[in-house]
Write a structure and sequence with these properties.
Blueprint lengths: L7 H9 L16 E2 L2 H12 L6 E6 L18 H22 L8 E6 L3 H4 L2 H14 L9 E7 L8 H6 L4 E5 L1 H4 L9 H14 L3 E8 L6 H14 L3 E6 L13 H18 L3 E4 L2 E3 L4 H7 L4 E3 L2 E3 L4 E6 L4 E4 L2 E4 L4 H9 L7 E4 L2 H16 L1 E3 H8 L3 H4 L1 H6 L1 H5 L3 E4 L2 E4 L1 H5 L1 H5 L4 H5 L8
Helix pairs in contact: 1-10, 3-5, 8-9, 9-10
Length: 450
Amino acid sequence: MSAVHCTPLQRLVRNLQLGGGWYALYPPPRAFRPFGDDGFMAAIRHSNGDPIPARLALHFDIPAAYRSSFCRASGALQALDRDRAQAYCDRLVREVSLVGGLFDRDRNVVQVGLAPGMARWMRSTQVAELMESLGRNFHVNRVAGIDLAMTLELDDLAWQPLRDWAALGFNRVGINLAALAAAGEAATSRLGEVARLLGDARDAGFGNLRIELPYGLPGQSDATFAALVAAVAAARPERIGLRHCPSQEPDAATQDSGHERHARMLLAGADTLEAAGYVHVGVDVFALPDDPLLAARSRGRLYRDALGFGAHGETHLVGFGVGAISQLGGCYAQNPLDQTGWEARIDQGHRAADRGVELSDDDHLRAAILQHILCFGRIDVAQLENHHFIDFRSYFADALARLAPLFEDGSLAWEQQTIRFDRVARLASQAIASQFDPLLVSGAGHAALP
C-alpha cells in the first residue's frame, strides 16, 4: 500500500517506528558530562540576571528503589524503609537551604512536585518539613496560588491520610493504575472502585486529578484496556495520561510487533477519550476542555520540562534529591544517580550537582523545536529562523529527508512557514521530535553550530 493510502493506524505504526522513546528534553541526560558546583552556581546567577527572570518550578526526587513505576505494581514498604525516609528527608532539607539562598527572593515559585512513590515512602508530616524548608528559602506565595503535585497509587487511596495531604496544599494529584492494569482480566471486577476512590480523593479536598493508564503490559488484552479506559473516562478526572509500557514480546494473540500493538492501543485509547469529551494536550496527556493546560496552549504559554507539561509559561526547574534534574540559566544539571554519592555531598555541606551540560546555540535551537512539537503540534519555522539566524531547510536537511514519508502520507504538512502535525503525528510527537536529535539518529557526539 502506498504511503498516501495508509490508514491512520498504519501511519501511526510507521511514525512510532522512528523511535525516540520517552523524549523529554534536549540535550537528553545521556549527553550529560561532569558538571560541578561552579557551573551550577554560574547558571543560577545567569538566570537571576535575566531582565525578567523566569519563575521557578521545584521538585523532589527519590532513590530508584522507592520510585513508583507506571508499568508495574510497587512492593510493600518495611519499617526500615520508614527510618531511611526520615534520614533522606533531613538531607533534603539541608539541600534546600544550600541551594535556595542562591536565588533572588523575588523569583516566585509556581509549582512544586513530588517524585512518584514519594507519598508512599514518606509520611505527610515529613513532606510538611520539606514544604516549610521551601518557604524559608524560596518565595513560595501560597496566596497567589501554586501547583503542588504528587502521585498516589490506586490502592493508596484506601489507606493514605488524604485529608492530611490536601491540608498541605497539594492540589494536583496523579493516580497510578499500574496494579489494576497489570491484573489483566482480573481487573474487570475492580473497575467500579475507580469512581468511588476518585470521589474519596475529591471529598478529601483534591481539586485536580490525573489518572495514569498503562497500556502494552504483558497479558493486557485490547478488551481489558478498553474497559479500563472507559471506566476511567466515566469517572471524569481532569486529566488522563496514556502511559506506554513497552514489551519486548509480540502480542501473543495476534503476533503483532511491539509497534503495532503500541499504535493499536494508543489510537483506540485516544478515540475513546476524545469521544468522552477529552482533548489531547500533547504527548500522552488528555484533559477536559476547561483544564489550565489547554488554556495555556491556546495562549501560547504551554511549556514542557523534564517532568512534563506546565501551564505557567517557561519556568526554570530546580531539583533536589538523588538524580534530580535542574534546567536553568542555559544549562541542565543533575545530582548523582547513586544515593551514597548524593548523601556524601550533602553531609559535607556541598551542593550536589554532579553532571550536566551547558547549552550551545545548536542545543537551544533543538530544544526550541522540541517545545514547538510537544506543546503545540507544529514547528514555527519563521520564528526559529528569525531567532536563531538559520535557514531551516538547509540546517535540518537530514531531518527533513528522514521525515519525507510523513509529509507524503499527510502526517506532516507545510503551511507557509509552519510545519503542521495532524492528529496521528501528534500522538507520535516524541518519535518525530527525535529525528531532530543528531545524538539519537547517528549515535555521534554532541552537535554544534557549523
